[in-house]
Each structure stands twice: as C-alpha cells, then as structure tokens.
Amino acid sequence: MSIERIFLAARPGGALIEVPRIRVVAGAGIEGDRYFNAKREPGQNLTLVEAEVIEDFNSKYGTRHELSCTRRNLVTRGVRLDTLVGKEFSAGGVRLRGVELCEPCKGLGTALATDAVSRAAAVRCLAHRAGIRTDILTSGTIAIGAKIGIADWIDAPTKNEPSPPSTIMLTNV
User: Fold this and answer.
1) Among 91, 81, 85, 53, residue whose Cα is nearest residue 69
2) Are 89 and 138 in contact (CB under 8 A)?
C-alpha cells in the first residue's frame, strides 16, 4: 500500500512530468503543479489513482497506456482508493482527506480511446474506479515508496484507553 509514481504538470493541459517526490502545502496543493492554490472545488489539491485499475484496463482492451494516462498526481499500488472517500489518511507523513471519487471525464475517455475502444467504453470501464480527489491537511513531502495508512489521529483514545500505535496500516481495502 504505497505510492508507485508521482506526476505533476506546470499548466492545465500541459505535459506531465514524473518526479521522485513532491512538496505539498496544506490547503493549497503541490508546489509547481497546475492546480496549486486553486480554490474552485474541494479535493482539487491532490488526485490519486490505483495502478491496478490502469493495468486492468490495458489487460481488458489489449492497450498499453502508461500509468500517467489518467493525469492523476499519485499512482498507488495495493490500496482501494474508493474506500478512502470521506476519510482522513496519510501518504508518507502527510495527512490527506479523501473528498470524492475522481470520475472519468470526456478528456480521459478520448485519451484512452483506440480503434478497438470507444471513448464511451473507456469512460464506462473506469466509472467509480478512476481515482479520488483529496484535500491536503498538513504540509510536507510525498515520495515514491511512501506508505499509505490511517494515522492515529483518526481514532484517538479517550483518557482511559491506551494510545494506539503511531500508524495503523489499512487492511482489506
């Protein structure tokens, strides 16, 4: 359950750049990214997608799309992102809140379409699976290999309960 790849783009629609780590600012986004400090909608700070979803699409349709094809910022492995909507979690030491599913749009459908796969079929295949939008709650650095987990601030103990471990990793997601 970790970050496998990291991407950003300096301008909307601009070329994606793969980087080994990013610096994120609470409430503002990724430094140097096209949506840094954008406030149009919740969850615009950082987007994530599962590598397995893209690989499944490629397997189903016989395509060879790169993991960057969805234009999401973080590509994860081993975690069901849809289970994180409405929850706080961490990527490395950075606290995030899953805001909503990042549903496929016409642009993504067009990017994935081939002679054998229509734009509509691509969108249908990725519906409810194209990733999530998140808000960044704490500033910090996220690097490739960073673990994804639910941190101890979620289920903080009452005064009479023992403290939980510093990080509880997600299971069965």
Assistant:
1) 53
2) no
Contact 91, 142 (CB under 8 A): yes
pTM (2 decimals)? Answer: 0.83
Angle at 31 between CA 51 and CA 41, to 5 degrees: 75
CB-CB contact of 132 with 102 (8 Å): yes
Length, in residues, of the chain? 173
Task: Classify each residue of 85-113 as buried b or exposed e, where b means 16 or more C-beta atoms within 10 Å of its C-beta.
Answer: beebbbbbebbbbbbebbebeeebbeebb
Structure tokens at 32: 């140097």
Q: Is residue 126 helix, strand or coil?
A: helix
**Closest Cα to residue 99, out of 139, 59, 137?**
137
Residues of the chain whose pLDDT is less than 50? 154-173
- Distance set, CA 132 to CA 3, 46, 47, 108 (Å): 14, 9, 6, 14
Amino acid at 57: F
User: What is the number of H-type helices and E-type strands within the chain?
Assistant: 3, 12
pLDDT single digits (tens) 101-142: 999 888 888 989 999 899 999 999 999 999 999 999 999 999
Residues 142 and 76 sit within 8 Å (Cβ to Cβ): no
CB 66 within 8 A of CB 75: no
Alpha-carbon distance of 161 to 40, in angstroms, equals: 41
- CATH class for the domain made up of 2-169: mainly beta
